[in-house]
Design goal:
This protein is an alpha/beta fold. The chain has eight helices and six strands; from the N terminus they run βααβαβαβααββαα. The chain has a single domain, classed as Undecaprenyl pyrophosphate synthetase (3-Layer(aba) Sandwich), CATH 3.40.1180. Helices cover 43% and strands 14% of the residues. The chain is globular and about 55 Å long. The model has no long low-confidence stretch (mean pLDDT 94). The structure holds farnesyl diphosphate (FPP).
Length: 254
């Protein structure tokens, strides 16, 4: 493995479904909250490792639209952990050039959470190394419906003809406007599904499912996922011959 400080990143955009906090805690006879607390520590370590690996975009599924249906005490705990995370990581994000961004339908978030997120987005807006996107109160279908509504409004207002609506227009109407599509999706905890995460954006992503629960995931497991990604040949619907052109020798995870 190369240890050079000057290496090319393995990929641009990593997306992660952080799963298994509850089971991690239950396995240890602990309350579910302990799993979420440990999960936040994993988030911090993974963000650090992404900066080290020069990954430009990291998108984390932190709270789904469906998670609102969990017991209120667990929802409250997750929101408190988010607020603590924003406060405790503020300086670190600024020092490391991490720019925070949020996606999802935030109309259900409390005013306190919304303003803390807005503040963090503003304060970190000049971060140049990593865009950390938190998907909060997020569902892929909901995002697509909201995007379709925005476009329908433009059509209804006569600003755009229906036949002129393009995939690029649609992408600009999504919450992720401006972000490249993820190259790799990791899901922890052994579940083999994408659970309404980034349904449009994951069209050509590589998937990596790993058995460990999120609180046990860390830099070592992340590097294993990146090594696996390096072995993949992405074809984007083309032939192997076409996509072989321009591919260099395989990258090493540093
Ligand atoms: C899945 O575990 C995890 C979540 C629903 C929330 C993820 C949240 C965190 C890691 C902490 C807060 C995040 C940030 C960015 C500060 P689960 O509870 O569904 O686990 P289970 O499937 O084993 O029950």
């Amino acid at each position: 493995m190369s240890k050079s400080a000057d290496f090319s990143p393995i990929l641009d955009h990593l997306a992660i479904i952080m799963d298994g906090n509850g089971r991690w805690a239950e396995q240890r006879g602990l309350p579910r909250v302990a799993g979420h607390q440990q999960g936040v520590r994993t988030v911090i370590d993974v963000v650090d490792e992404c900066v080290r690996q020069k990954i430009s975009y990291l998108t984390l599924f932190a709270f789904s639209s469906e998670n609102w249906g969990r017991p209120q005490s667990e929802v409250d705990t997750l929101m408190s952990l988010l607020l603590e995370f924003l406060a405790s990581q503020r300086q670190r994000m600024l020092d490391d050039g991490v720019r925070l961004r949020v996606i999802g339908d935030h109309s259900r978030l409390s005013k306190e959470v919304r303003s803390a997120l807005q503040r963090a987005e503003l304060e970190t807006a000049n971060g140049k190394h990593l865009v950390l996107t938190l998907a909060l109160s997020y569902g892929g279908r909901d995002e697509i419906v909201r995007a379709a509504r925005k476009i329908a409004q433009k059509v209804a207002a006569g600003e755009v003809a229906p036949e002129a609506v393009s995939a690029a227009d649609f992408e600009m109407a999504l919450d992720t406007a401006g972000l490249p599509d993820p190259d790799l999706l990791i899901r922890t905890s052994g579940e083999l599904r994408i659970s309404n995460f980034l349904l449009w954006q994951l069209a050509y992503a590589e998937f990596y499912f790993v058995d460990v629960y999120w609180p046990d995931f860390g830099p070592v497991e992340l590097r294993q996922a990146l090594e696996s990604y390096c072995q993949r040949r992405r074809r984007f619907g083309l032939t192997a011959e076409q996509t072989a052109e321009g591919e260099g020798l395989s990258n090493n995870v540093s």
